[in-house]
Amino acid sequence: MESKVSYNGPVDVILLKEVFDKNPFITVDLETENKQWSAVAESVASKAVSGKIWKKHMKLTGRSICDRTLLLLHYYNKENWANICK
Fold first, then answer.
1. Nearest-angstrom CA–CA distance, 5 and 54
2. Distance between CA atoms of 83 and 69, rounded to whole angstroms?
3. pLDDT for 50-81, tens place per residue?
4. Which of 16, 8, 20 lies closest to 54 in space, CA to CA?
5. Residue ranges of the domains in the chain?
6. How far is CA 74 from CA 40, 53, 83, 85, in A?
7. Those residues with Cβ within 8 angstroms of residue 82's Cβ, 6 or more apart along the chain or in another chain
8. Kind and range of the H or E run holding 30
9. DSSP state, residue 3
10. CB neighbours of 64 closer than 8 A, spacing ≥ 6?
11. For the whole model, what pTM was predicted?
12. What are the tens digits of pLDDT across the range 7-26?
């Protein structure tokens, strides 16, 4: 059984840096977009482990990373600072 992914501030920072660097939002087709989100997910997971934020490698999907990014952007646009800081 896989552990539930636990997002926190440091992981969100890694996530947003990776999204900024790879920018999966500007893709031509769905297949390329899915591959880019999967690459972001793998990079976030490995950086979270190497940065000792997570004790073990968590299985992230491109979909979960995309959803988390959109949620953070939604909080930012609504200036919902209490939820961003959680």
1. 9
2. 13
3. 878 777 767 889 999 999 999 999 888 887 66
4. 8
5. 9-84
6. 19, 24, 10, 13
7. none
8. helix 30-50
9. P
10. 5, 41
11. 0.80
12. 888 899 999 999 999 999 88
